[in-house]
Write a structure and sequence with these properties.
alpha+beta; 2 strands; elongated; signal; TAT_signal
């Protein structure tokens, strides 16, 4: 195969690829439902082996005068 025919074949393949119709994306499904996968985090919640276990610790208290319940504000440890 000569260099000229090689470049011609590559050019033809590139042209064919650019002209070919793009693959169709999936049509949106009508009536699809959402599933809530929310989990309640507790100290015994399973985690990936070697990962740090979930823990919460109080960081502040918001008084009832400020609109809080007077209980602790918690954050992820």
């Amino acid at each position: 195969m000569s260099r000229r025919s090689l470049f011609g074949a590559v050019g033809a393949a590139a042209l064919a690829a650019s002209v070919a119709p793009a693959t169709a994306s999936a049509a949106p499904t009508s009536g699809a439902s959402l599933v809530d996968l929310t989990h309640v985090l507790t100290p015994g919640f399973p985690v990936w082996p070697g990962a740090q276990q979930f823990a919460m610790r109080p960081v502040a208290r918001i008084g009832t005068h400020a609109g809080g319940s007077g209980g602790p504000c918690r954050t992820l440890a």
